[in-house]
């Protein structure tokens, strides 16, 4: 059933009206709540007190605060640590692979694993430590969940890179929940989970098994090109790149099978250069599964590892789980329905699982129109209003029409 509601009766000259289509399970009570809420300012969609408590700690709110109670309710759920959850299965498979494939000098795993860091970080940790410029679009308030001007919910697990390197670690994995304002559909959700990997090398570790390696060095005073940073030698970069791609190729082969077709695509990240994305040919489609690259030496140096060079990668656990298990909608990961959860109660983490749909209910479609203030309108803020009121009942939101009054 489709219902169209125009919430503003008068037509202000020079204003723009947008018409949106909401698809999901929408009740009459939701419609009434929506009508009362839509007229509020997008930037102040949720009334909050002067402080916010997250994981037992209180934070003072300010003009940067935009984290809603709906988002805060997800903090501490730690789906990636819930035994037999599909995200836990993926994390454990990756961890198990690294533990078995990479052994240190004393017979212990080379990579240490951290999967319980709280998601509240400083803006410096999330951006500055990773060399992300002050004017970079990834810092925008409309794309992140700021608790206040100085603290936020991390937008990537890379927020912990600097601290772990500074502590003296040179091989580690970090898994955790991350938060980004995003659109509403079956492949996007404001809370998802990442797994980060970092490996640093000294000159001895990198060149030890290379013929003629005693004549190589990690650093030089050269020029920055598309292939290397100005401070790295070409020999060092190519060996680090080879190690990175070999490590990740072995990982996805472990997850998807040895016959998997892989390709590498050059890309850009502020904290790595050169940078790459890995795509896999899965069931006839090329799918991007992770990003990686040679770490920016400025980041490594600032963390106290001036005599080392390294690589880093980051992958989305939901992305891998949706591909591996055939899960069609990212919101299912938050389901408490036993019909979903029991499908992943397997005796071994490597057991093959094919998700079986368990609901045949048709969607309910509603159309809604409203005037928008062009100077303040933020599309992601609109999505936050929808999530706050309708939660996960809303499956999809599409802009279907825009009208600008001619006068």
From TrEMBL:
Catalysed transformations (reactions): tRNA(Phe) + L-phenylalanine + ATP = L-phenylalanyl-tRNA(Phe) + AMP + diphosphate + H(+)
Annotated SUPFAM superfamilies: Anticodon-binding domain of PheRS, Class II aaRS and biotin synthetases
InterPro entries, alphabetized: aa-tRNA-synth_II, aa-tRNA-synth_II/BPL/LPL, Fdx_antiC-bd, Fdx_antiC-bd_sf, Phenylalanyl-tRNA_Synthase
Domain (Aminoacyl-transfer RNA synthetases class-II family profile) ranges: 176-347
Pfam families in the record: tRNA-synt_2d (PF01409)
Enzyme kind, highest EC tier: ligase
Plastid among keywords: no
GO cellular component terms attached to this protein's record: mitochondrial matrix
Coiled-coil region: none
Broad class of where this protein is predominantly found: mitochondrion
The enzyme's E.C. designation: 6.1.1.20
Gene3D superfamilies according to UniProt: Bira Bifunctional Protein, Domain 2, Ferrodoxin-fold anticodon-binding domain
Subcellular localization(s) per the UniProt record: Mitochondrion matrix
Biological-process GO terms, alphabetical: translation; tRNA aminoacylation
Gene Ontology MF terms: ATP binding; phenylalanine-tRNA ligase activity; tRNA binding
Domain FDX-ACB residues, every copy: 359-407
Record-given protein name: phenylalanine--tRNA ligase
Protein species of origin: Anolis carolinensis
Organism lineage string: Eukaryota, Metazoa, Chordata, Craniata, Vertebrata
Gene name tied to this protein: FARS2
